[in-house]
Amino acid sequence: MRIVLVGPPGAGKGTQAAFLAKNLSVPHISTGDLFRANISQGTDLGKEAKSYMDAGNLVPDEVTIAMARDRMGQPDAAKGFLLDGFPRNVSQAEALDKALATDSVKLDAVLDLEIPEDEVVRRIAGRRICRTDSAHVFHVANQPPKKEGVCDICGGELYQRDDDSEETVRRRLEVYHTQTEPIIEHYQAQGLVVTISALGKVTEVTERAMEALQRARSAQG
C-alpha cells in the first residue's frame, strides 16, 4: 500500500508509522530521515538542503519533493511506502500528485489521526526529560517519576523542554491547522482520506489503523 500519514503534533504519528510500516512490510519515509540520509551521504540534494538549513532558511518544496521521489523510487518501495511528515502543505500535496502521476503510481489512502487539542497539550506539555540522559523520558500523568523532578534511572534532574511548553504546543497546533490540515480536504476530494481516533493504547490505535486501511484497500478493489 502507498499511504500518507497525517495528524497534529502529539497524535503519535512517528510511533504509528513505525508499527504500520512493519505490519504492511513497506518502508517508513519521513522528511527528517530523508534530510539526514541525503546530507550524511553527501548527495547533490543533501548539499542543496544543507545550504538552506545552514543559512537558517526553510528547504524549498522542490528539494524535499525530489528527495521523496528518489526514495519512493528505490527497490524496497516498489510495493508501497508510508509517508510521514510529507506532504506538509497543499502545494507539496499537489506536487506529489504530479510526481506520482508521472511515475504511474497512485496513493491508496491518506490516514488521518484525529485527536482533541486538549489531549495533544496534555500529552506534550506533560513530558519531562532527564538533563543527564535525554533518552530517559517521563510524563507527569502517564509515567510519573517516583520522586518529582528526579529521574528514576540515573537520578538526573527532570525538566520540560521549551518546545514542550503549553504555549509552544498551541503555536505548533496553529501552524498545523493553517498549513497541514488543508491537505486533508485536498485528499478528501480524491476519496483517499481515512480518519481514525488516535486516542487509546498504541496497540489499539495500530489495530484501528490496520482495519481502516484494509477497508480502504478493499473498497478500491
Radius of gyration: 19 Å
CATH architecture: 3-Layer(aba) Sandwich
Low-confidence stretches: none
Please count the helical segments.
Answer: 9
| CATH homology group | P-loop containing nucleotide triphosphate hydrolases
| C-alpha termini separation | 13 Å
Oligomer: single chain
**How do the strands of the widest beta sheet line up side by side?**
2-3-1-4-8
> Based on DSSP secondary structure assignment, what is the total number of beta strands?
8
Q: Tell me, rounded to a whole number, the average pLDDT.
A: 92
What's the CATH class label?
Alpha Beta
Q: Structural class per helix/strand content?
A: alpha/beta
Number of structural domains: 1
Query: Fraction of residues in helices?
Result: 40-55%
**Most strands sheet:** 5 strands, parallel
- CATH names the topology as Rossmann fold
Q: What best-fitting shape do the alpha-carbon axes yield?
A: globular
GO biological process, one term: AMP salvage
EC number: 2.7.4.3
Subcellular location: Cytoplasm
Pathway: Purine metabolism; AMP biosynthesis via salvage pathway; AMP from ADP: step 1/1
Index terms:
221 residues; alpha/beta; Rossmann fold; three-stranded antiparallel β-sheet; 9 helices; 14% strand
Any chance you could write out the topology, listing elements then pairs?
Layout: E1 2-6, H1 13-24, E2 28-30, H2 31-41, H3 44-54, H4 61-72, E3 81-84, H5 90-102, E4 109-114, H6 117-125, E5 127-130, E6 137-139, E7 158-159, H7 166-180, H8 182-188, E8 193-197, H9 202-219
Parallel strand pairs: 1-3, 1-4, 2-3, 4-8
Antiparallel strand pairs: 5-6, 5-7
Helix pairs in contact: 1-9, 2-3, 2-4, 3-4, 4-5, 6-7
